[in-house]
Each structure stands twice: as structure tokens, then as C-alpha cells.
Specification:
The structure holds 2 protein chains of 2 kinds. Chain A has a domain of 88 residues. By secondary structure, chain A is α+β, with helices and mostly antiparallel strands. Chain A has a 4-stranded antiparallel β-sheet with strand order 4-3-5-6. In chain A, strands 1-2 form a two-stranded antiparallel sheet. Chain B has 2 domains: 172 residues, M75 peptidase, HXXE motif (A middle domain of Talin 1); 158 residues. Chain B is 68% helix and 1% strand. Chain B has a two-stranded antiparallel ribbon with strand order 1-2. The chains are: A alpha+beta, B mainly alpha. At the A-B interface, helix 8, helix 10, helix 11, helix 13 and helix 14 of A face helix 15 of B.
Chain lengths: 454, 368
């Protein structure tokens, strides 16, 4: 019987961790470059007058023109990670800068950004620079050809959580019985060559839904088993390539495909690093340099193992926090984020804000586009925490204009997964008097339908 | 490996089997976006603009004749031409295509209430460039409304005003000529290269003409019909304080209902792909919704939206020809009409755009 303590003392080849470090660092570097190249730094973080913040992180704001500096730090630290140059500093800087960027405006929230924050946080504690790194080259004390096994396994567990929980979240009646939202999304792609004509068919939407759920639930098991690993990886490539073609999901298919290579054997990782080594030495050196077989002392303490175990336990529990809230999760979105609920909803909203002067009764109707970007307005329109934060912003804006204790009311409608639009926010509640908290928001009108499942 | 090949061949066999059995069925869930765009261009948009251009031409001729020779007869003729062109404008205001956008067709033709002081200043100075944004409130149909109906208490008073104010005669002619030149440029653009660009623009990008057209169509109903024609006069944006003087065609004061019905009908016809000036329907948003099986609460979404159009038209038919009189006499009916139009706006913005999967902005989404 393997105790957890003896598990923490198991060792594995350091090449796996080094491979992941190089791949992750390079992907992050190019993602940041792509993000900047799309003009998104200005568009999402500098141009908008107002930003939606996370509860408790209202102090994290874009820094005007200096926001570019955060992105530069982020890109450079990603390179430090890839090269294993001052790795600990690089990984801390990367985690902090990337997470800061994500916290600046929740309009751009994506589960995969959260995934990157989690992975980069965990990587701070891993001896990923023990092998094939500039650090190991400079300082033989930290060089090692073996690392604790848990340091590789923790990355596999993080990936496994993403897939498996995404699969669990698909076990609901909208996904399985109504093939929603794929039924909507696929029909938007019927103009594609070759596969296009199939995508409008109902049975195809059902097939994609079921295949997607089964894939998410079982892919990790295929990747874990040596005999099914290659087949699993082929599925990973096919699946993510298809999602890349069908949906605007940016670099994430690549991130998931490359990350899933961590499941391969250390021999594979050694060969891959060998190829990299041969390329960067212009073919002069074909084999990886031999390293000293010691366990690097700073990183390999058992304490880190226990710490990561607790971290993983939190990750396992957090997605279920929605059970603490009444009402339909898809409707209220209380406990929706940070739970690997990806591609589950096609949800749009419409909100007309009305501001009333408490003294004179004078009323103003708000054109949201005067204060928000098109993307911010879209995201705000169906997420209660956005609506509340924006209502407070309107209150403050009109108060500054001289209105007496402005009352803010929202007339709003939401259409979810192909249901006819329905009223969303209680139009008689003065949102300026409501406050953000982890408690249930009583001013969300009840959902008139039921969605079964997890 | 053997098993893998076997799986592949089974899948391939299944696909082949399905495709052969599917040959005879209609292409469920797909919609020919090129046919849709072609219908929009050839049977709706271009004919609407050509009709508008023809009426703008008549308006231009009649305004020039009136400027030359200001009699009761020429006044009546230019008034008729003004109303005809104003009605035709309600049909083209939906299509904010790139040329119309560039020339500010919508703001320059129909911003009201019109700026009477500004108009009088322009007339006094005789110095204005109608293409400038500052002139939007001093030109177009609302400015002509004032100049043809509001500048004198009686027709005789009005005619004698023009008698003594040559600059005003010139201003009327210039406003009509500007309307005509904008219409000419847009029609020329469509008859030039833009038609091809438009029809080819079936992609899913936000900037693709198909998305732009649908977004403009919804925006027109919300921002150019619902809000100014009903909401503002009915006091919905001013805490119930009604504005009898902020109605469309305030100085004529007998056609606001007619113009609104024209605009709502144009919107409904576009939704249904109805050929301009004909009774035939071609590909349109309603048929597109049917093709993607958009069913809501047991009913086709297209039928739900059509019913909302009918309800809105019925509510508008309850109103007085003059919305100024309506908001003064019985504003409840105005508010009812606003609410009925609002129902269409919400159904189109949420249910229709969701069903058609039309995006508003380009950004990475979530996915796995």
C-alpha cells in the first residue's frame, strides 16, 4: 500500500517537466504577441472608460499606457520560463503579470485564461529548471536528471480536471436532450466547405454534443494508458482542430494539444528536447548533455507536495460551489465561473437602464454604448454581477453630474440556449442600493424553465 | 493499429451511408446565404434605393421650380414630392451600407426636431456646407418640413416670405439637391462594384456585409424607429414629460403616423424578404429562422416575430395621424405602441440574433 508520503518520494525523469516548461513558456510568449498584434491591449484594456472587476479585486485596474508594460513583463517572463533563465523569478513574474491582466477586466474572462493562471501558479513550485535550462547550466547545484514524480503528476491532474469537469458540466438536459447550444452554433457554420452542409442537420448537433461529452469525460483515461495514448492524442488533435475551425477560440486548441503531450513518456520528452537542442545548436549537438543524477534540494521538499495536494483539493471542490445557491446556475450564473463550464450556453441579453433623481424624479435613459464597448455591453447584458457593477458606475456618474441620490433600475431580458427571451432583472429594484457579495442575488427574476443534470 | 483502421472504416462507412440516404432530402438546417444576399440586393435594397432616388429627383426638380417661381401651385407640388420622398426614405433607412454610412444618409436626412434657429442662420448667411455634421439638424426632410409648412402661418404668408427672402428659396433648393446627390451616389455605388462585394459578403466576421446588414436592420428599428418616432414624443425618456414638438414631420403635423407605418412595414417586409413594391417573398430572415429550426415555445420564431409586427402595426393604427395631438390627447396609446415595437426589438435582438448566431464583435471565446 502506497502511502501519500512514500508517493511524494517517488522520482521520475526531469525531461518531462523540462519539456512542459519549454512548451508552455513558448506558447505563452506567442499568445501574448498575438494578443498584442490583434490590437487587443488597447481595445480591451486602454480604450474603454470603464472596466468590470472581480469581487474583491476592484483595485486591479489597467494602468493607462503603462498597461503595455505589464504585457511586456508577461511576454519576457514567459521567455524566462521557456529558457529556464532565473526560472523561479520568471515563473513568479509570469503568474503575477498574467493574472493581473486577467483581473483587470472580467469582460474577457475565459476558462482557459484561468487555467493558465493556475498552471503558472503551480509551476512556481516545481523544479522545472532542473534539466535543459540556463539555470541548470549556470548552477550545477540545481541541475538534476530526476525530479519528484508528483511535480509532473500535478500538471496531469490539472489538465485532467479541466477535461473531466468540462465533461461533467455537459451532463445536463440542454446539452444532451436539446443539443443546445451546439444546435445554434453549428448552423452558423453551414457555409464552410466540405463539412458545412452537414452542420445544419439536427442529428449532427446531437452527435457533436454526445461525442463532446464522452470525449471530455474519457480523454484523460485514454492519455493515461500507455496502450491507448497515441489514439487518445490523435483524438485530441482532431477534436481541438475541429473546434478551432468551428468556433473563434483563439490559441486554446493549441495550448490544449501541446499541454496534453505531458501524458507521454519521459523518453518522448527527451527525444523532443533532443530535437530542440539540435536545432538551437544548429545541428552540432545531437544528444542532450548528460546531467548529474541528484535531486535538487530546494524544490523537492515534501512540504510542497502537501501544499499542492491541498491546492488540488480546492480545485476539485470549487466547481461545486454552485450547489450553495438557489435557482438555475445557467440563469443566475452564481458559481458559474472558475468551474470549467465551457461552451455550455448561448446566452444573450438586453438591458435598458433608467436613472431617477431621488429629489426631482427626473429620469434619464441610458444608451449603454455611451459608457461601454460593444463587447462589454454584450457581456454585461446577461451576467448579474456585471449589471450590478455597471449600475453602481451609472449611479456614481450621475451623482457626479449633480443628480440627487440617483436610483438605478434595469429593464432586462435574456434568451438562453434557444428559449424565448424572458425578463431577467427585477425592474423595481434600485440596483444602486444592492451590493456585490457571495450571497444569492434576490433581484434576479426566477428562471421559468428547468434544466436537469449537473 | 488494426483496431484503429477498423474504427476509421466503420466511421467512413457510416458517413457514406448517411450521405447517400440524404441525397433526396432537403438540406435541413442550411440556408443559402448567397441567395439571401442576392435577394436582398436585387429585390429589396437596390429597388428601394432606386425608388428613393427617383422620388428625390422629383423633389429636387419641384424644389428648384418652387425656388424659381413660388406660387401656391409649385408649393403644393414640392410638398407632395417631399412627402413621397420622405415615405421612400423610411424604406432605405434600414440599409446603412458603406456608402450611405460615409455620406451620413440617416443623420443627414432625418434628424429631428430640426434646428429652426440654425436654419434661419444658414438662410441669413447663405453660407453652409450640407455635408458637415453640424448641419444634420438643419437639413433633410425635417428642415424641409419646417420650410414648407412651418415658416409661415398660412400658405399665403409662407409664399410671401419666399417672395422676400431669395436666400430661403435657394436653401430649399439646396436641401433637395443635397438629398438627391446623396441618393444618386448610393445608387451609383450599388450599380457599380458594391453589389458584387455585398453578395459575396456571406462570412461570419462582424464586418461581413451579411452581419452588418442584420445589425443595421435591428438598429434601425430600435434607434431610428422606436426611440425617435414614439419614445421621445411619448415622454419615455423624459420621465413622462411628453414632447408634442419632437414628433416626426412636426410642422406638417398630419403624417407622423403614416411615416411610422411606412417604416414598420419596410422593417417587416425586409424581415420576410418581400420584394420591394411587389407581393412576392424571396429568401429573408424569417425563412432563414425556419431553416435553422428556430422554434420557440412550440411556434416558429418567424411566426412569433411576424405576430409582434402585426401587433405593433395594430397599436400604431390606433393612433392619430398627428402624434402631436396623440401625446396631448391620450398618451397611453403612444406608450402602448412604443411597448409593442419594443417587443419586436427585443425578439429580434435576442431571439433572432441568437438563432442566427450573428456576432457583434470579434474576440476569442471559450472552448475546449
Amino acid at each position: 500500500m502506497l502511502t501519500f508520503r512514500s508517493y511524494l518520494n517517488l522520482k521520475t525523469d526531469a525531461a518531462s517537466l523540462a519539456f512542459f516548461r519549454v512548451a508552455f513558456g513558448l506558447m505563452m510568449f506567442f499568445s501574448i504577441i498575438r494578443f498584442a498584434g490583434n490590437g487587443w491591449i488597447d481595445k480591451f484594456y486602454i480604450a474603454p472608460a470603464f472596466h468590470f472587476t472581480y469581487f474583491g479585486f476592484g483595485w486591479v485596474k489597467p494602468l493607462g499606457i503603462y498597461t503595455y508594460g505589464i504585457f511586456i513583463i508577461c511576454a519576457l517572463s514567459a521567455l524566462m520560463v521557456a529558457l529556464g533563465y532565473r526560472y523561479r523569478l520568471g515563473s513568479i513574474l509570469f503568474f503575477l503579470s498574467f493574472t493581473y491582466i486577467e483581473l483587470m477586466d472580467k469582460t474577457t474572462y475565459l476558462n482557459h485564461y484561468y487555467f493558465i493562471s493556475l498552471v503558472s501558479f503551480v509551476m512556481i513550485f516545481l523544479p522545472a529548471n532542473a534539466f535543459f535550462s540556463l539555470d541548470a547550466k549556470r548552477n550545477h547545484l540545481i541541475a538534476s536528471a530526476i525530479v519528484p514524480r508528483y511535480t509532473v503528476d500535478v500538471l496531469k491532474v490539472l489538465l485532467a480536471i479541466v477535461y473531466f469537469y468540462a465533461g461533467l458540466a455537459k451532463l445536463n438536459t440542454d446539452w444532451l436532450i436539446n443539443a443546445m447550444p451546439l444546435k445554434i452554433w453549428l448552423t452558423g457554420n453551414t457555409h464552410l466547405p466540405l463539412i458545412g452542409p452537414w452542420l445544419g442537420k439536427q442529428w449532427v448537433a446531437y452527435a457533436f454534443s454526445y461525442i463532446g461529452a464522452v470525449y471530455d469525460l474519457f480523454i484523460v483515461f485514454l492519455l493515461l494508458n500507455r496502450r491507448t495514448r497515441l489514439f487518445g492524442f490523435v483524438l485530441v488533435v482532431v477534436f481541438h482542430s475541429l473546434t478551432r475551425i468551428l468556433f473563434p477560440i483563439g490559441v486554446f486548441p493549441l495550448v490544449m494539444i501541446v499541454s496534453s503531450l505531458i501524458f507521454f513518456s519521459p523518453q518522448f520528452h527527451r527525444r523532443a528536447l533532443g530535437v530542440v537542442y539540435s536545432i538551437i545548436t544548429f545541428g552540432k549537438k545531437k544528444a542532450l548533455p548528460a546531467s548529474i543524477v541528484t535531486v535538487n534540494k530546494y524544490f523537492a521538499s515534501e512540504g510542497i507536495g502537501y501544499f499542492l495536494a491541498i491546492f488540488i483539493a480546492i480545485q476539485l471542490i470549487l466547481p461545486f460551489r454552485y450547489l450553495l445557491y438557489p435557482g438555475e446556475l445557467f440563469w443566475t450564473e452564481e458559481g458559474f465561473r472558475f468551474s470549467w463550464r465551457v461552451m455550455l450556453m448561448e446566452k444573450v441579453g438586453y438591458v435598458q437602464f433608467r436613472i431617477v433623481d431621488s429629489k426631482t424624479g427626473a429620469t434619464a435613459y441610458i444608451n449603454n454604448r455611451d459608457y461601454l464597448t460593444a463587447f462589454q455591453e454584450k457581456q454585461m447584458s446577461f451576467q448579474p454581477d456585471f449589471i450590478l457593477e455597471y449600475a453602481h458606475y451609472l449611479h456614481d456618474t450621475f451623482k457626479a453630474k449633480g443628480m440627487a441620490d440617483p436610483q438605478v433600475y434595469a429593464e432586462s431580458y435574456v434568451a438562453l440556449n434557444g428559449r424565448l427571451n424572458a425578463p431577467y432583472i427585477n425592474p423595481n429594484v434600485n440596483l444602486a442600493k444592492e451590493h456585490e457579495s457571495f450571497a444569492h442575488k434576490t433581484w434576479i427574476l426566477p428562471f421559468k424553465d428547468t434544466i436537469g443534470g449537473l | 493499429m488494426k483496431r484503429f483502421v477498423l474504427t476509421l472504416s466503420v466511421v467512413a462507412g457510416l458517413l457514406a451511408g448517411c450521405s447517400s440516404s440524404d441525397n433526396n432530402t432537403t438540406s435541413e438546417g442550411t440556408y443559402d446565404r448567397t441567395a439571401l444576399m442576392t435577394n436582398w440586393a436585387d429585390n429589396i435594397i437596390i429597388p428601394s434605393f432606386e425608388d428613393y432616388q427617383a422620388k428625390a429627383n422629383v423633389l429636387n426638380t419641384k424644389a428648384a421650380a418652387f425656388a424659381q417661381n413660388h406660387t401656391q401651385q409649385t408649393l403644393e407640388e414640392v410638398r407632395t414630392a417631399w412627402l413621397d420622398a420622405y415615405k421612400a426614405f423610411q424604406h432605405v433607412g434600414i440599409f446603412d451600407d458603406p456608402k450611405a454610412f460615409e455620406l451620413h444618409l440617416i443623420e443627414g436626412s432625418n434628424t429631428y426636431p430640426t434646428d429652426v434657429t440654425g436654419i434661419n442662420n444658414n438662410i441669413a448667411s447663405g453660407n453652409y456646407n450640407l455635408a458637415q455634421p453640424v448641419q444634420y439638424t438643419r437639413e433633410g426632410f425635417p428642415a424641409l418640413d419646417y420650410l414648407l409648412y412651418g415658416i409661415g402661418d398660412t400658405d399665403n404668408g409662407l409664399i410671401s416670405y419666399y417672395e422676400t427672402t431669395p436666400n430661403a428659396r435657394q436653401y430649399v433648393a439646396d436641401l433637395a439637391a443635397h438629398i438627391k446627390s446623396v441618393a444618386d451616389a448610393i445608387v451609383a455605388d450599388w450599380n457599380g462594384s458594391y453589389r458584387e462585394t455585398f453578395i459575396a459578403g456571406t462570412g461570419t466576421a462582424v464586418s461581413a456585409p451579411i452581419n452588418q446588414t442584420v445589425n443595421n436592420f435591428v438598429k434601425n428599428l430600435e434607434k431610428d424607429t422606436r426611440t425617435p418616432k414614439l419614445g421621445i414624443p411619448a415622454g419615455l425618456f423624459s420621465n413622462g414629460v411628453t414632447y408634442a414638438d419632437k414628433v416626426e414631420a412636426y410642422y406638417n403635423n398630419n403624417v407622423s403616423r403614416q411615416l411610422l407605418i411606412e417604416a414598420l412595414t419596410a422593417s417587416k417586409d425586409f424581415f420576410n424578404g418581400k420584394h420591394f413594391g411587389m407581393s412576392a417573398n424571396g429568401p429573408g430572415l424569417g425563412a432563414y429562422l425556419d431553416a435553422v429550426n428556430a422554434v420557440r415555445e412550440g411556434q416558429n420564431l418567424s411566426a412569433v416575430i411576424n405576430a409582434k409586427y402585426d401587433a405593433a402595426l395594430a397599436a400604431v393604427n390606433q393612433l392619430n395621424n398627428s402624434f402631436s395631438s396623440q401625446v396631448t390627447a391620450d398618451n397611453t396609446k403612444m406608450v402602448n405602441a412604443y411597448n409593442a415595437v419594443q417587443q419586436i426589438v427585443i425578439a429580434e435582438k435576442l431571439d433572432m440574433l441568437q438563432a442566427l448566431n450573428i456576432s457583434i464583435d470579434y474576440v476569442d471565446g471559450d472552448g475546449d
